[in-house]
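Quick entry between incubations.
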Amino acid sequence: MKIALLGYGTVGRGVDEIVSARVPQVEVSRILELPDRLTDPRMTSSYEEILADASVELVVECMGGVEPAHTYIMAALAAGKNVVTSNKAVVAAHFGEFADAARATGASLYIEASVGGGIPWIASIEKVRRVDDVTSFSGIMNGTTNYIVDAMRRDGADFDEVLARAQEMGYAERDPSADVDGIDVLNKTIITASVAFGVACEKGLPASGIRNLRLSDLELFAAHGRTVKLLGRGVSRDGRYAAAVEPVAVAADSLEAAVPSNFNLVTLDATTVGELRFYGQGAGSLPTGNAIVQDVLDCATGARRPVYDFSRGLAYDPSLLRADYVYRTSASIGGGEYAPGAVLVRDLTAQAARALLDEALVTDPTTFMAALS
Amino acid sequence: MKIALLGYGTVGRGVDEIVSARVPQVEVSRILELPDRLTDPRMTSSYEEILADASVELVVECMGGVEPAHTYIMAALAAGKNVVTSNKAVVAAHFGEFADAARATGASLYIEASVGGGIPWIASIEKVRRVDDVTSFSGIMNGTTNYIVDAMRRDGADFDEVLARAQEMGYAERDPSADVDGIDVLNKTIITASVAFGVACEKGLPASGIRNLRLSDLELFAAHGRTVKLLGRGVSRDGRYAAAVEPVAVAADSLEAAVPSNFNLVTLDATTVGELRFYGQGAGSLPTGNAIVQDVLDCATGARRPVYDFSRGLAYDPSLLRADYVYRTSASIGGGEYAPGAVLVRDLTAQAARALLDEALVTDPTTFMAALS
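Done. Structure below.
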């Protein structure tokens, strides 16, 4: 099967490398690149040329960002070409539109690489759903923030120092907002909820990150037998669902606590199979490239033709996701004492907890909040 | 698709329950049972009748044990019927023979449920191998022994007490040998190595269990920041492989250490995807039934038609699997002191370590051995 790569950054090169070394039945015949970077005879800067090439059955979008990725994916699906993408931002923003476009022409959309890197997460959820209902999911879905928290805890270093080191090692972007504010995890949570529950998610799901996490917060939770992990979570029952992203103070002997460095761990619960967990490299050119190549092979062999349908109309119900929350803040927000300088507020929805965090941040912009698992 | 169940114990009933509640495209049309237990119109005690029923496209063997399961599976494959089995003993003993028989008639053999219960382990290894070479695997593959070690550690109870409790709760058999002596894990290790490396395994791979584990051994390792888990492991490189089953003293902050109760955790390492780990219920009627139903659906939809080929002729080379070993023994076997009453013997192959254990057991039948991870 002939495929085209849109973008030739780290991920695109990873796909090209894996395909040429290990997958003889697939050929990367076209690559979309900027006009001043056409260093390979397969490269073109004209997307129209790729669209018009009938021999290209599948387009791999690995440019990142919402535009022009969104326009390119829609054009490929409209032309009946299958699409594989690793781009969580564009899928989270336009999943329903892509699903409709794919169904209209019979093309397939493959998004394994958009969540969990090399972990076979999306395909596993789809497989589970052949037999079971997925009742909940949760996961460490962002390697950068896991690396930061893990290194803070292991080395006794503070947030800024570890973030700077992560940036040097290429684990974090120069602008770390998408990672440390939970935006990347929110995109992955939206995609996971869509696949797991069959719903086009509500805009504005509650999300907070670890920007305000201090070493002293980790020490505070350690004294209670806990450590902090940034988790994306979702629940569905009785035709309703909720989802959120927030730091969670997990038990020190939990599997989440044991996840080192920049690894990911994602968990689902389902009717008959029970709890399933998947662990692996959530990023990197080869693991992400591998997930893309697996999607390409699923398409080439016909092993998997995902059809996404969000017409079930699941209602968003924030009351499904509740926990006790700890706020380390100097703001007066009620609650009882959890530790000196930190209060415990019981039985909040994730949405109410995020609203209370916003309130606390007005008075104390250093406030850190975590749910108790 | 019409299927027949061979055996209607816990697993068979689980499959029947899941299929009738959740999988309308599959029908359990025949069930093989003992002549005095024919309580359902679908039941027969004649396997010939099932074989002769051309409408039955697939046979699910969930009787357990080597015979008559082996004969029944061979007869089904010879008749061109697809076979799904959860029976690790029969697959470990006859995998090569089954693979040849399946290839001869174009039938398919599905064995997901034989390792790791509801965890999609076998299908995931096969998927990984479409792109990568699997270079190693390891795992907690037996829920009973994980439950025993976990309960000993959490409750400060000794082996016999916890084993008795596990037997009461139905987590352990009345004769616990297959679990506590590592035989069950050996079968699963053989099957995993066969699928991961493409090899019909050597008979007599080194295997030892946890029968001699005492609470004081766990305390001894805890003082060194470790806990004990029973692991099946395998390695392959340069056209050679090794595999073994043994207790391993893992780091207290490792993912293995965090696996609670009777859960399983299985890990593989592969060329481009790196390390992948899978966690879930390794036994139980619904998780195992789920794995069987997933295999049935893979067959019904054509999503997966496993073809096993062990003709590559990988050589068994025990030197690939080496570690440092701790022996708690009063026998004189050399080595340096690890702790009072326990010696450390460095850089042994798993095979040499098992031989040294046999030597120590002659003098001190209570000897316990664990590899250092």
